[in-house]
Design goal:
171 residues; mainly alpha; Cytochrome Bc1 Complex, Chain D, domain 2; globular
Length: 171
Amino acid sequence: MNRFAPLAAAPILMLAACGNGGADTSSAPAAAPAKLARVLSDVEKATLLASLPAPYNEGDLENGRRAFARCRSCHTIGEGGPDMAGPNLYGVFGRKAGERPRYSYSNAMRTADFTWDAEKLDHWLQNPRTFLPGNKMTFPGLPDDKDRRDVIAFLKVETGYQAEPAPAPAS
């Protein structure tokens, strides 16, 4: 008998734990297929990174991608991507907390009164439990300042962040 046979079902059980954050989907419409997003070239990514406000313009996108790997079991980032245990993060910057359509947020997040920006996300990523007590995210946080900076820069580049246009010069 194979002594590892009981472990063969473990990946299936672990995947079953990832889902839509506890939302009742029995009457929800089928999710729209994810759009095929245009992949940015390295030059376009570098240009977008350079346009970010400090300190994110100095972010290391490769380190941000690696650090974000810890988040991928619960979050997708592509335009039209599905919600999982956590909401899809495409377009998160500038979105009011708890307002992604069809995602089942905790009461703490639904009633939070802020809009996601780099500063809020930095505090959230440092320790989600203390940032917003009562939220359902189980992630312990990213204690390293550089990792948080790089994840935020990575997310800004990969999730459709649009820099606010500079104010028109006074005439």
